[in-house]
Amino acid sequence: MRELRFEGRTAVITGAGGSPGLGRAHALLLAARGARVVVNDIGPLPPELGYRDVASAEAVAGEIRALGGNAVADTSSVASEEGAAAIVATALDAFGGIDILVNNAGICRVVSFEEMTAEDFRHSIEVNLMGTVHTCRAAWPHMKSRGYGRIVNISSGSMAGFAWQSAYAAAKAGVFSFTRSLAAEGEEHGIKANTVTPGALTRMVHAAQAETSPFISHARDHMPPEIVSPAVAFLAHETCPFTGECIESMGGHVRRTYLARTPGFSAPDMTLETLAQRWPEAMAGTAEGIFRHDDSDPREWHIRPYVPLRGDGVRD
């Protein structure tokens, strides 16, 4: 098998300044395989989110350069159209184009729906979903004009529906469907768009869970970010054979995630009573490959809940 390389390609990776972090791992791998990389991260996050240390785009770009790679840093925010445009402009100014976009930037507030404020919910959507939209919109015309592009959007298994993650789940489900639509529109222009749902020990996980969490212990031993990155790199490569797919990658295990429908039943004279009587037929079907929301409950993972603002602007 020949080595998959990225010489001549420019990749933008958002949210790539954290350590440990998925974005950093993706940036290091793509750079090691020859890509020119724009490492994007805003740096400090709101302290109430509980993230360890401060992410540094320049530190990761420096790591890449120290290893002989080619990288520049960008600190613009994906949460605005202007910020997204600035990120893409960094790629154009430094390397003359953009071939690969990895939308990794994200935040997660672990809190019950009734306790989350409208502002917090909105911020989660702005970063996780609209941030992805903004960067794709900024990169799209450049990819389209060159007849080539690879977009890898990072979603989450939370999109299936997790307790205490309503905003994050909604945003990441939006990323999944948004990417499917991009794939449908981009194929004729040489643009492929796919989604990855990752699992690894990152700053986000440390912020959301206490050190006593069994998931932290398991992830520390078996789920480093670096073993997620090959899936991202494969979807970012010119030889990627598909578009519009969602690939789960965690702990060295890779599988496809997809929507499914049961065979159901038909009744030309459908009534409410008919549906009630025949409901088991609508539900019957194989569950193989379908991730259900009740397969896992993060409330069992020693969660460190996010504390929303009170009405007076103070956090409890």
Top keywords for this entry?
single chain, 9 helices, eight-stranded mixed β-sheet, about 325 residues, 8 strands, Rossmann fold, alpha/beta
How much of the polypeptide forms β-strand, as a percent range?
A: 5-15%
Helical amount: 25-40%
CATH superfamily: NAD(P)-binding Rossmann-like Domain
Summed up, the helix count is 9
Fold-level CATH name: Rossmann fold
Instruction: Note the main sheet.
Output: 8 strands, mixed
Short characterization:
The protein has 316 residues and is of the alpha/beta class. Helices cover 38% and strands 14% of the residues. The protein has helices at residues 22-32, 57-66, 81-95, 118-146, 166-186, 203-208, 214-222, 229-236, 272-283, and strands at residues 10-13, 36-40, 70-74, 100-103, 149-154, 191-199, 246-250, 253-257.
Explain this structure:
- The chain is built from nine helices and eight strands.
- The chain has one domain: NAD(P)-binding Rossmann-like Domain (Rossmann fold, 3-Layer(aba) Sandwich).
- The protein has helices at 22-32, 57-66, 81-95, 118-146, 166-186, 203-208, 214-222, 229-236, 272-283; strands at 10-13, 36-40, 70-74, 100-103, 149-154, 191-199, 246-250, 253-257.
- It is globular.
- The relative contact order is 0.14.
- With 316 residues, the protein is of the alpha/beta class.
- Strands 3-2-1-4-5-6-7-8 form an eight-stranded mixed sheet, sandwiched between helices.
- Helix 1 (22-32) crosses helix 8.
- It starts with 9 loop residues before the first strand and ends in a 33-residue tail after the last helix.
- The model has no long low-confidence stretch (mean pLDDT 88).
